[in-house]
User: Fold this.
Amino acid sequence: MAIVKGIMQIYGSVGGFTFYTRKGSKNTIMRAKGGPTKKQMENSPKFEKLRKNQTEFGGCSRFGSKSRKAFGELLKSADYPLHSTLTSIGKILMKMDTTHEPGTRNLNLSLHKEVLDDFNFNKKYRFSNVFYVTPTCEINRENLQATVNIPDVYTSSDLKSKYKLPFFRLIVVLGTVSDLAYDPVKKKYEPMVMELHGTSITVTGEWYSTHTILPKSSMTVQMHDSQKAFLTENVTIVISMGIEFGDTGFDKQPVAKLFSGCGKVIAVG
Assistant:
């Protein structure tokens, strides 16, 4: 690409060059024509590696786009694009597959669940920097169920309300993510268990004052019985937990404040 300066005011094509302007610039830009055709890109042996890379990137992108839905209602608490980060995790999973050839490698989250350990939905206010107690989680895979146990919460020392709001509530999400495999017929990546890929169910706790003491408690979340039939070893269960803060509404009842929450993955099974 070259920038044309001087008295020339050319737009369009001349010989093997194209002249055009770009929004926000007064300069005329000159670009040489050429490059491979669409047919060459699709069939030429020269571009076989590029085609494989594009196919795998499509699989990673699909993993990122759909798997984030396993975070359910907590997805709205994220303060950065989760899709791109999950796509990068998809690339890591793909490189871990040493069985298949490039272009057909699987994304086996079920074999490398640790890649989602402590996955945070926030960069500025992380869950562990807002909610100082450490919950534990018990996952019952067979029943697609999980119970999160929360120790005593002394809000004066265990809670940091970033907006100094008067109320807070806890949220637990059980989500599922399927492994992805390359389909040679469709020539793209597909979930091995479509019915449990990017699905979730959310349980939202009651509102509490940010100036109180909460005795130890538990929150249980479970998917519908009809979904159990689709559970295989290729499905990963992801448990996320978050906190949301609220203010007093017109009716004197707590109302959630937009963008006040945060969350993270607390267990993978």
Q: What stands out?
A: DSSP finds five helices and 17 strands in the chain. The chain has a mean pLDDT of 87. Residues 2-32 form one domain. Residues 43 and 158 are 60 Å apart (CA to CA).
